[in-house]
């Protein structure tokens, strides 16, 4: 029996143990009907054969749990693997799920239609017990789709635009205001936010907070531009900005990849950081600490963020009341990439 190439079945276990299929079922599901000695022997044989319940079988078991949750990330695959934010987020989710033996089903798409199709397929095929939704969009069509499916979900984002779904959000506006006032206090007036894609809610929140804080600080030349979170996008955008006659003296990047790329462009074009240009990265990472000068950054506990999301989803799946929650706010951590203008 040890040479089975296919997935072992209950019948295989029954033959190896010399018992009925019913006895195996009783033993595997912890139900009465077999002696304790027989139960232990059956479980040992099942383990030796590498038997594991299929997802449909687990779904039909008491409680109807699949033992898996889903996460779809709608980003280009080549850039996703380089972005520390999602690696830390997944690490946090996995850490929490591992304590209860639940698997994470991760799918990468480059199209919202494909993401919605994944939710529909997972729901109809009973592939997952629930999903964690990321990158909340403006007028996000995914929210209504998931609400209508029999698929528990938690949204990372909000508080607006999440419908009836429970959400976990971060107050990005307060952190952005802190960054702008910090740069203004260092003497910077031409500050540019290199924002992420306009379709994301958190991009709009940060940009509005940037503009409000700039107006409050009297920075009439402050402005924003959109980029795509990739290193290539950060490079192209920074070259255009630094080649302008009224080039900025401070740049705030919406992620660490773009900030590191921007620092490289500044070196390439002979713009000294920080005496001629200050750089701030959103979400600290090992990338920010490895470059020289090291990057001033917004620090958040992303791993904890992922764990909190997984906990909320577990409660949602169990049908327990789930309170919407706010993560700990990001904090500005000054490093070598920011300083007084001209110093």
From TrEMBL:
Residues 8-62 form the HTH lacI-type domain. Keywords: DNA-binding, Transcription, Transcription regulation. SUPFAM superfamilies: lambda repressor-like DNA-binding domains, Periplasmic binding protein-like I. InterPro entries: HTH_LacI, LacI/GalR-like_sensor, Lambda_DNA-bd_dom_sf, Peripla_BP_I. Residues 324-343 are annotated as: Disordered. The keyword Nucleotide-binding does not apply. One of its GO terms (molecular function) is DNA-binding transcription factor activity. Signal peptide: none annotated. Pfam families: LacI (PF00356), Peripla_BP_3 (PF13377). This is Transcriptional regulator, LacI family. It comes from Nocardiopsis dassonvillei (strain ATCC 23218 / DSM 43111 / CIP 107115 / JCM 7437 / KCTC 9190 / NBRC 14626 / NCTC 10488 / NRRL B-5397 / IMRU 509).
